[in-house]
Amino acid sequence: MRAQSFWKAVTLDHSNFLESLILLLDEHGVRYCVIGGQGVNAYVEPLVSLDLRLAIAADQLPQVEQLLEAHFQVARFPHSLNIASAGSDLRVQVQTDPRYFTFVDRATRREVLGISLSVASLEDILQGKIWAATDTTRRPSKRRKDLLDIERILETYPHLRDRVPTDLLAQLG
Predict the structure, then answer these.
(1) Better-scored residue on pLDDT, 161 or 17
(2) How far apart are CA 79 and CA 98, in angstroms?
(3) What is the mean pLDDT of residues 31-35?
(4) Is 27 exposed, middle or buried (0-12, 13-18, 19+ CB in 10 A)?
(5) How do strand 80-84 and strand 73-77 relate by DSSP bridges?
(6) Mean pLDDT lowest for which of 8-22, 69-83, 86-100?
């Protein structure tokens, strides 16, 4: 089974939500990049997840919010827009935390589970995971997954170890 078919099967994406979302962003010239766990998957051996996190160029965020609301179900939270579509268990989150806006400028096209997408640089992906792992407002299980993602990155790219705070490195063992 191809990676894309597998991802669609896992997310029960019967409505082609992922393809529709990416096509909509591309058709409107939206500058975005994949961050989070799927971003990690673009650089290391992938793990399956129902989540797709995106960063959007800051100047396009108001336009993108209106665009998404016209086509999908959108819920606004303090630092994100959560996007959903009937017929899919894929969970898309658009990051609205300003720290992520510049990630788009350094993004490149990469394969994410069989789909070519704009993906944040490895260093930016790592930085986002560090922010998430140290965010005490996140659920402990989410922070443990962030630590695992950091560990996955460091196993493949040990030269990035110096970018990780020592307290996080200590938790990795």
Answers:
(1) 161
(2) 9
(3) 97
(4) exposed
(5) antiparallel
(6) 8-22
Helices (H) and strands (E) in the chain, counts: 7, 7
pLDDT at 6 over 60: no
Q: What is the DSSP string of 24-70?
A: HHHHTT--EEEEHHHHHHTTSS----SEEEEEE-GGGHHHHHHHHHH
Give the contacts of 13 (CB within 8 A, at least 6 positions apart). Answer: 7, 87, 88, 89, 90
Which of 83 and 1 is assigned the larger pLDDT?
83
pTM over 0.85: yes
Distance CA 13, CA 89 (A): 6
Dihedral sign for Cα atoms in the order 77, 108, 64, 71:
negative
Determine contact, residues 8/48, Cβ cutoff 8 Å. no
